[in-house]
Amino acid sequence: MASGHKELKTSQAVHMATTMLDILPVESLDLPAGELIHRNIFIYKNGQQILVRGGIAPHVMRKEFKLFMQDYALSFLESLPIQYHQLDTKHAISSLKNMRPYTDVDVEELHTLNTTVLVDEIEQPLKRKQDLLKLWMMLLDIPQLKTYTSKQAILAPGDWPVWYFGKKIIASFSDNDTSIPTEILSFVPTVGQFHITLNASRDIVISARFFFQLLCNGVFDKRFILAKSPKPYKVSLCIYLAFSGWIRIRRYVISKLTMCKSVEVQFMLYLLDELIPLVYFHYPVFVQGKDRNMLLKVLKRLEIYFIISNRHHYNKSLLSLLSDDLYHSSHLPGYNHLTQNHQHIITEKKVELFHSSLRHHIQPHDDGITIQRQAHMLHHTKHNTLIRDFLQHHNHGKDDHDLTLLAGRSAETLLDIINQVMQSAAEHEQHTEVNSTTYHLPTFNTDITAKCLPLGFRWSYHHRPSEDLICDSPNCSISSSTNLSKRLTCGHTFHITCLSQSGCPICSPLLTAEVVHLSNSWNETIIKDIYSQPSNESTETTDSDTLPTSCRIHDIQYYLT
Fold it and tell me: At how many degrees (to 10) do helices 349-359 and 368-380 cross?
């Protein structure tokens, strides 16, 4: 992890890297005898066969998503048990607190740092593979840890850059390079679930800012202005408002919306019944809970969202995470037991909590040595001073009465918005497409692209949901409009008799082809520095050993400074 702190008199930034171990009383992951703990994938490049350690298995992911399309027929909220269809204040508080590490110190979560050991806080950027390798080598310089990694695996959760460079280190490892010990292969990089929620929530609020602006104006005040790049806590507040309001009115309006295929209605249903519940429940409920199977389904839905929104890097990282999970489940003893019963401990959030604590004890002009000294002092006190200072001053976000009032105001505002959307759908009589890639939303007086719409709008024109048809099946021969039909999460509608048991017959083959393409692209990306000539087939254009800029902007500079 890296945290930048700008000095007072110059524009230079101090980039600090935190190396931390979390030691917990759970069973270790013993290395299997004669087994590989990273999936080996072979690709052909420039006439030679290249090994990709820890790569994605395209055929495995294709099969997984083909099977998953049956579940994806229902929206996420519709697929959840009935108890999730009611507002739970406990979940609401957890959701609102979820992004607090970037704006405040949460006292309860600070206590979780008592199991951590700070190895070091050093002035070190994390912008290249070699930067992370240096930190891993520093860990292996500890005799006890090197002995441990010779027999056990270590899960290494991190934000996108840490995970990305970790995967590149594993993928490019060579038995012929004696400068890197084989124990490096005992590290198992995993993309942090906290940052998945963080980035998905922020992307959703920014892409639908026009909607959330209208919602906040109705709940708070007409003068309320939602920033173009809202802070994380504001993002979680927007998610809560939308979810709490929708959950109160959904059963009264869902039947009126389901068979209307105007683009505005498609946008609203996709946002409120799929995306909002997805990020609302992902981290505080399913990551922190013990339902591993449900968490994997949530991750597959998030992967589809990242594909729809064309979210570079994350649309491949979740595929890698899912591919690795399947492999570790059958090749790494103890992995299934650990993830089923202790999924919540596999998190990078503790590093963010430590950064938050550290920021309260340093000044903007402090140099690297001062920050390092303060980090060690803070760790040795186990944050007791900070906890004592904050105990009597920070209890906001825990008032059930306030949350109920916000939910009520949000429900009223949402009802007004939906009434306007339905009235607009009747007046404009369909055909809100501006061109082949842009759609106009008259209620919000704005244009959107297919990135804001359900999966069905991602494909070419003749594969998209048609506003004129009750059934989108190209093989439909039913002329009567009285036959029962069903709307799917992807936006397509079908007569029940025309609908396949395996999900949408239009989106399923197109999505699985996209999954295979992204898997192959990722395998080429993480071993680019192994072969000499650049690939003409790869969809990636970033340098193989530097951090992609589109990820660096949001994952490090925005959130950690």
Answer: 110
State the average pLDDT over residues 106-119: 72
3-state SS class at 266: helix
Question: Residue-wise over 278-306: b if at least 16 C-beta within 10 A, else e?
Answer: bbbbbbbbbbeeeebebbbbbbbbbbbbb
Domain map of the chain by residue range? Answer: 2-395+510-560
Residue 321 predicted with pLDDT over 90 = yes
Distance of alpha carbon 223 from alpha carbon 82, whole angstroms: 37
Whether 499 contacts 486, CB under 8 Å: yes
Report the pLDDT value the prediction gives residue 229, as an integer from 0 to 100: 92
Q: List the single range of 328-342, 454-468, 473-487 with lowest mean pLDDT.
A: 473-487
The pLDDT of residue 64: 97
| Phi and psi angles of residue 241, each rounded to the nearest 5 degrees, phi first | -60, -45
Average pLDDT of the chain?
A: 83
For residue 312, which phi and psi values (nearest 5 degrees)? -55, 145
Backbone angles phi, psi at 94, to 5 degrees: -65, -40
DSSP state of 285: I
CB 357 within 8 A of CB 383: yes
- Looking from the CA of 17 toward its CB, the CA atoms found within 13 Å total 18
**What percentage of the chain exceeds 90 in pLDDT?**
52
**Widest CA span of the chain, in angstroms?**
76
- β-bridge partners, 446: 441
What's the rounded mean pLDDT across residues 417-437?
A: 75
DSSP state for residue 499 in the 8-state scheme: -
Given a contact cutoff of 8 angstroms between Cβ atoms, the answer to whether 129 and 136 are in contact is: no
pLDDT tens readout for residues 221-256: 888 899 999 998 899 999 999 999 999 999 999 888
pLDDT at 532: 42
Q: What's the Cα-to-Cα distance from 421 to each of 214, 349, 364, 529, rounded to whole Å?
A: 13, 39, 48, 51
Q: At 21, which helix (H) or strand (E)?
A: strand 13-22
Tokens linked to 449:
């692209």
Segment 529-558, tens digit of pLDDT: 665 433 333 333 333 344 333 333 333 233
Q: Which two tokens stand for residue 437?
A: 């890639």
Nearest CA to 236 out of 201, 277, 199 is that of: 201
In 3D space, the residue among 206, 128, 134 whose CA is nearest the CA of residue 554 turns out to be 206
Name the β-bridge partners of 2.
17
Sign of CA dihedral 458, 460, 465, 467: positive
**Can you read off the two tokens belonging to residue 534?**
């650049």
- Nearest in space to 246 (alpha carbons), one of 264, 268, 214, 221: 268
Residue 561: CB atoms within 10 Å:
13
**Tokens matching residue 486:** 């069903």
**Tokens found for residue 540:** 């990636």
- What residues contact 375, with CB distance under 8 A and at least 6 apart? 16, 18, 118, 121, 354, 358
CA distance 500 to 477: 15
